[in-house]
Amino acid sequence: MESLNLPGFAHKVKQVNGKPHIFDIIRRKFVTLTPEEWVRQHFIHLLITHYGYPKSLFAVETGLQYNTLSKRTDIMVLSNNALPFLLVECKAPFVSVNDATFAQISRYNFTLQPQYLAVTNGMAHYCFQAVNGQIHFMDDFPKYRDFNP
To answer: What positions does the domain Type I restriction enzyme R protein N-terminal occupy (predicted)?
Structure first.
């Protein structure tokens, strides 16, 4: 897998039926290693090691309903009171973060209404709040201790 604009981590990779799989510390199992999964795993580790989020508050690839459509969130971090706090949409490194990416996470925001949203392709990362239809981009991701004392 290619280098990302994210800190590395000690990952475990193994072959299953001739395909690479990476260990997901949240789901506690090996999952197929796709370019998007490579980004997801890096971002999970970033949030845990650099921003202090406890593993127990993560939900990965969780289903949700948007109108009549079934969708799946990449990473959701819950607050201490079990409400969506940070929602992250991950793309493969070769997929540009564009208006379609922001539209996708906006649809998830409509249903889940987390405090913060983020999009990443492992190379470019954006964190923002959506308040009253206005988007407020942030310079950095929120640290767990600053919002969940």
So the answer is: 35-142
Using CB atoms within 10 Å of the CB of residue 131, give its burial: 0 to 12 exposed, 13 to 18 middle, 19+ buried.
exposed
Encode 30-91 in three state secondary structure.
EEECCHHHHHHHHHHHHHHHCCCCCHHHEEEEEEEEECCEEEEEEEEEECCCCCEEEEEEEC
DSSP string of 119-136, one letter each residue: EE-SS-EEEEEEETTEEE
How confident is the model over 59-106, as pLDDT tens digits? Answer: 887 765 555 655 678 899 998 888 889 999 999 999 999 988 888 888
